[in-house]
Amino acid sequence: MSAQYHPLVKRLLDGELSLAELPAELRPEGEAALRLIRSVDRAPVTLPAALDARVMATVRRHAASPVRRAWRRLTAPRDVELRLRVRPWTVWAGALAAAAVVVLLVNRAAAPSSPPRGPGTQARVGSHDSVYVRFVLFAPGARRVAVAGTFNQWDQNAALLEPAGTNGLWTTTLAVPVGQHQYAFIVDSDRWVPDPRAPAVDDGFGRRNSVVAVVAQGARTL
Amino acid sequence: MGLRDEATDGEIVRAVLAGDVERYATLVCRYRDRYARYATRMLGSRDAAEDAVQDALVRAFDHLADCREPDKFAGWLFLILRNRCFAERRRRMRVERPLELADEAFAASDRPDGELEQAERSRALTAALQHLTAEQREVFVLKHVEGLAYDEIARLTSATVASLKMRMHRAYDRLRELLQEHG
User: Does ipTM top 0.90?
Assistant: First the structure.
């Protein structure tokens, strides 16, 4: 007996063919293969409820750790001193005609001409230790563009970009707390676009996030 | 069930990020068992699965600010658990000798009496699954234990349907080989 299943039997196991669709000579092999697959143990597995207590004890300890509290202080929105100056990053074009660039505005006097939208960004406007960062995405044909990152808890509705004319550029300006942030753009609510001109890091789960460091004097990519 | 239990994953994630750590317990309760079967089949033991699920839930909390789409917390947590299972598998490969195939685990799968035959075949298959590669075992578990379609598995794992089918078909052949050798 061959150690390999016939390709049609594999399709049977995949659910693409029925037993009746197999040639007669393959049906015994198909029946045996189906018996094997049907013997898979699908019984639910219940873990002990004590696991909940162990997890929660650990997360409470982590939440109370000095390092975590310091990080929360660093990233929490505060009241403001504005220092704005423009430092543009260039625009890129991708295979799908989407491109992104972040322009950093660090200027002592002016507030952004187009205030950021959304409750998350408004809450940060005018905070100390925040720097205005202008996000620009080249996405011709897009119907909706947003930017989400660690500065707005990855809320893809908190910071919408607006079309800048009809050339495919979308833009918004956000007050971003001093610190290192990861971010990405969301086009039409479902396509995540990292900024290729900024360094990107693997988020540990198979996707790439762009990284920007915001310091009191401005912002820079790492 | 209280209102808190009915909150969406996204609402709970945002509340936790805003400082309400205790609400994370709802997510723990919600997903503890949901992924336990996957972890058990991937790691071959309930104890190892319990450790993996616990670690994944703690790691998810530690990295919650990196969860891009809080409303898709379930899928994000699955990826953390999946990485944890693969890492555990790699660790075992480094520190342990490959498991010897236990003949008794594979034996008697052709006995004629219905329920016993089924139980023994199931035991043999469970044992054989541990001798697949982690990638082959994962696609087998997700399709034939969790009941997902190839396109759903592709979305979860970021693999293509074609590559998933290739892994699965190799898994079928490897299982047949194992069960013939020890049957």
Answer: no
Minimal Cα–Cα distance from B62 to chain A, Å? 7
Question: Does the beta-carbon distance from B58 to A59 stay under 8 Å?
Answer: yes
Contacts of B43 in chain A (CB under 8 A): none
A41-44: long-range pairs with CB below 8 Å, 24+: A41/B41, A41/B122, A41/B125, A41/B126, A41/B145, A42/B37, A42/B145, A42/B147, A43/B37, A44/B33, A44/B36, A44/B37
pTM metric for this prediction: 0.62
CB contact under 8 A, B63 and A41: no
Q: For the segment B115-140, what is each residue's pLDDT rounded down to a tens digit?
A: 777 788 888 898 899 899 999 999 99
> Chain A: residue nearest B10 by CA?
A155
| pLDDT at residue B171 greater than cutoff 90 | yes
Domains of chain B: 1-98 (1.10.1740.10), 107-183 (1.10.10.10)
